[in-house]
């Protein structure tokens, strides 16, 4: 694998850490600013919304410059946002810092996916995308627990300053290791927008929203579910999230490995498995060992869908992959926000702390149905289109 993928993975590690570390630091941040926990929760919501808006916005702004230059600018923006968070004198400024950092998130992973895929042979594209996303998954195993520990021991401002330092490291790595990739000929906004006329691109994005929503329906409310239903202590929740991160890491590698060979069967297996595990989680949550196994499986099956879904969008957005790739990253976060909201609704309705698992199972099941529909449409496509897609397309999907 090219060294340039390591630079992309370091950037992904920093982004993954800043996205998720906030959850463990919310009580302290709320206390320091004198705001309630729900108000402090805006730091999570604001970040997710910033990703959804920033992914297409920053990608469109970057259509006039090379992808390498854009990746460097995005890492610079990420550093500025985290420094703002670290130094913020008021809660409003802290929220501003979070939003600034989040604007870089979607476009970085979107453009990074295209760059990663371009660095390797056609039959290794999903593996290259998975290598970059490894940084995001490792962040949940190492970066988030370490950032939470630093925040509790020294102060949460130190955590955000350290994350800004990671961003600088990623920026230098991209500058040194990513080859200069000229802007593709004819890469204009109008051309990039044509990708969204494809039903297959839209179906892949809908699968992303629903499939990843399934994961976050359960994980958003993991702390009350594990402490009040499974009977774990508060301190154990951190280790359960590390277990989730290990599942994410292994699932991502598995997804990258098999998506290059059998993309659609990989999606059927992972989305179907995710729906079953989430449905069973409503029962297994009452047993400590089975709850731990379920959390690991949700992480593994959920993230095994990431490389194939991202590659599916790249494959279907022929000749205009950059904006579609970035918007798909926004779709992951849209899934997170949607699932967290729906999970909150069923808990507020008095259905219990395991109820979000049913929501997740239904979302993952719906994503599986869309995958089957997408494959059926592809089989019915007229022969000339299949020929135009080329042999690499056929190799990937069948």
Automatic annotation (TrEMBL):
Main location: membrane
Keyword entries, A-Z: Cell membrane, Membrane, Transmembrane, Transmembrane helix
Localization per Swiss-Prot or TrEMBL: Cell membrane
Membrane topology: Multi-pass membrane protein
Record-annotated membrane-spanning stretches: 38-58, 70-88, 100-121, 133-154, 160-180, 201-224, 236-254, 266-284, 290-309, 330-352, 358-377
CDD domains per UniProt: MFS_NepI_like
One Gene Ontology term of the molecular function aspect: transmembrane transporter activity
Gene Ontology CC terms: plasma membrane
Residues annotated as domain Major facilitator superfamily (MFS) profile: 4-382
InterPro entries: MFS, MFS_dom, MFS_Efflux_Transporters, MFS_trans_sf
Name listed for the protein in its UniProt record: MFS transporter
Taxonomic path: Bacteria, Bacillati, Actinomycetota, Actinomycetes, Kitasatosporales
């Amino acid at each position: 694998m090219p060294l340039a993928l390591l630079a992309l993975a370091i950037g992904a590690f920093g982004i993954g850490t800043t996205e998720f570390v906030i959850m463990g630091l919310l009580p302290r941040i709320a206390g320091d600013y004198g705001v309630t926990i729900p108000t402090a929760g805006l730091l999570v919501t604001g970040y997710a919304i910033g990703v959804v808006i920033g992914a297409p916005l920053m990608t469109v702004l970057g259509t006039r410059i090379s992808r390498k230059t854009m990746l460097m600018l995005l890492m610079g923006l990420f550093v500025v946002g985290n420094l703002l968070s670290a130094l913020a004198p008021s809660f409003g400024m802290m929220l501003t810092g979070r939003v600034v950092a989040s604007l870089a998130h979607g476009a970085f992973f979107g453009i990074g996916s295209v760059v990663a895929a371009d660095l390797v042979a056609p039959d290794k594209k999903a593996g290259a995308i998975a290598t970059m996303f490894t940084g995001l998954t490792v962040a949940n195993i190492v970066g988030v627990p370490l950032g939470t520990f630093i925040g509790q021991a020294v102060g949460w401002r130190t955590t955000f300053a350290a994350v800004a330092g990671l961003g600088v490291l990623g920026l230098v790595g991209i500058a040194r290791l990513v080859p200069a990739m000229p802007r593709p000929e004819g890469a204009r906004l109008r051309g990039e927008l044509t990708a969204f006329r494809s039903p297959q691109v839209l179906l892949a994005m809908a699968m992303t929203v629903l499939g990843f929503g399934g994961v976050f329906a359960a994980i958003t409310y993991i702390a009350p579910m594990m402490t009040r239903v499974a009977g774990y202590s508060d301190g154990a929740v951190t280790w359960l999230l590390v277990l989730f991160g290990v599942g994410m890491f292994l699932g991502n590698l598995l997804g990258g490995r098999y998506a290059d060979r059998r993309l659609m069967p990989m999606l059927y297996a992972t989305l179907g498995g995710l729906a079953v595990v989430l449905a069973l989680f409503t029962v297994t949550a009452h047993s400590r060992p089975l709850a731990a196994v379920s959390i690991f499986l949700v992480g593994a099956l959920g993230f095994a869908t990431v490389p194939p879904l991202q590659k599916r969008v790249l494959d279907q957005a022929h000749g205009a992959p950059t904006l579609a790739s970035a918007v798909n990253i926004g779709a992951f976060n849209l899934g997170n926000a949607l699932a967290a909201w729906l999970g909150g609704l069923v808990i507020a309705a008095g259905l219990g702390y395991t109820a979000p698992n049913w929501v997740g199972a239904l979302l993952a099941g719906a994503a599986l149905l869309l995958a089957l529909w997408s494959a059926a449409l592809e089989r019915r496509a007229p022969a000339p289109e299949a020929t135009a897609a080329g042999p690499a397309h056929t190799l990937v999907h069948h």
